[in-house]
Design goal:
This protein has 13 helices and 10 strands. With 353 residues, it is α/β, with parallel strands linked by helices. Strands 5-4-6-3-7-8-9-10 form an 8-stranded mixed beta sheet, sandwiched between helices. Bound molecules: guanosine-5'-triphosphate and magnesium ion (MG).
Length: 353
């Protein structure tokens, strides 16, 4: 940035005369040379590009190994089918899914529904898309206002570090952008830092937060207070952040029930949504967490986070087949806008492109 001096015509007011007069004065004038390259923005990767990058490992399997297996004019025999199954298994989609795709391909080939390599690849893509959607009408369905006469209450649960608090911030932003009001409850009362993290987000997003009286307070009492205040203030959504827990920690799992019971005292049909956050980079562990949390709680949807990292994409397919819980959103980074409603079409396209 450079400053310079120069002559400039300015309007001045003569105290004897109320009309402004034009005069040529020596004034300090800012001549600003902006060094363009310093403020040049780095091109932002599109959401789809991020997804493709995050799923690179799995994509190599689908767009690389599968492409090689089905080359132009290749015949499909038992060896091809066995190799297909082996390739699918290597993507972490699990035996049940791999077996069902293999069977479907075999049948379609015998019935002459698919005859060439292009048709087979498209057939496999469609099979995966239908597994991702199969019977799960809420797949990719964003959070909606379910309770029309009061706050829609959402509890966010999951293991430590899966991305609960960050996902709450992203979710809040998208709900607020959609024109609804949100209140947050910091029911992860064990760590002061957890309350602080949510408080910072609430300030940035301009939403109210209900906090524990002190570190270690009963999370159920925070939830009770928050529910009462959310009803009183007639907010559209109350989103509850909870401490990370493993399904094996029986006392902590019981604590979740206690939280839900205090909510029910105020609104019997709440919580309206219980969203499980799963870290997409943890592979089979995420499947186990999904199964175990699902045994104890009525989970209405999943958010798969960190799909921008080195995610095991096939796990997502296994998850849909074995858990039968709809994936609602995917997390694609640490920024506030890095949340997208899950689209089976885009996901499969990113795997095969
Ligand atoms: N790359 C990437 N990082 C994410 C994503 N979501 C969350 N993170 C990061 O994961 C880390 C943990 O996120 P938190 O939101 O604090 O996770 P949490 O589940 O609330 O953690 P605890 O409260 O400790 O159980 C942070 O560094 C986040 O920035 C995502 O979609 N992509
Ligand atoms: Mg947290």
């Amino acid at each position: 940035m450079v400053f310079g001096f120069g002559k400039k015509k300015v309007k001045v007011v003569d105290p004897e005369n109320s009309e402004p007069i034009e005069a040529e004065l020596e004034v300090e004038e800012e001549t600003i040379e902006v060094e363009e390259e310093l403020i040049e923005e780095k091109p932002k990767r599109s959401f789809f590009q991020k997804l493709k990058d995050g799923l690179r490992k799995t994509r190599d399997i689908f767009s690389g190994r599968l492409k090689k297996l089905f080359t132009i004019g290749s015949k499909i025999d038992q060896d091809t089918l066995d190799e297909l199954e082996e390739i699918l298994l290597s993507s972490d989609m699990g035996f049940e899914v791999a077996e069902s795709i293999k069977e479907s391909v075999s049948k379609a080939y015998k019935n002459k529904e698919v005859e060439n390599d292009t048709e087979i690849k498209l057939f496999i893509q469609d099979e995966i898309k239908s597994i991702l959607k199969d019977g799960l009408e809420n797949t990719g369905k964003p959070i909606q206002k379910i309770n029309l006469n009061g706050p829609t209450i959402i509890t966010i649960i999951g293991v430590n570090g899966s991305g609960k608090t960050t996902s709450i911030a992203k979710l809040t932003k998208s709900i607020v952008d959609g024109g609804h009001s949100v209140m947050l409850a910091a029911a992860d009362t064990f760590r002061a830092a957890a309350v602080e993290q949510l408080t910072i987000w609430s300030e940035r997003l301009g939403v109210e937060i209900v906090k524990p009286a002190k570190t270690g307070s009963d999370p159920a009492s925070v939830v009770y207070d928050a529910t009462e205040l959310a009803i009183q203030k007639n907010v559209d959504f109350l989103i509850i952040d909870t401490a990370g827990r493993l399904h094996t920690q029986k006392d902590l799992m019981a604590q979740l029930h206690k939280m839900h019971n205090v909510i029910k005292k105020k609104i019997p049909e709440a919580p309206h949504e219980t969203i499980l956050i799963l870290d997409g980079t943890t592979g089979q562990n995420a499947v186990v967490q999904g199964i175990e949390f699902g045994k104890v709680h009525d989970i209405t949807g999943l958010i798969m986070t960190k799909l921008d990292g080195s995610a095991k994409g096939g796990v997502l397919i296994r998850m849909c087949k074995e858990l039968q819980i709809p994936i609602r959103y995917i997390g694609m980074g640490e920024q506030i806008d890095d949340l997208e409603t899950f689209s089976p079409e885009k996901f499969v396209d990113a795997l095969f492109e």
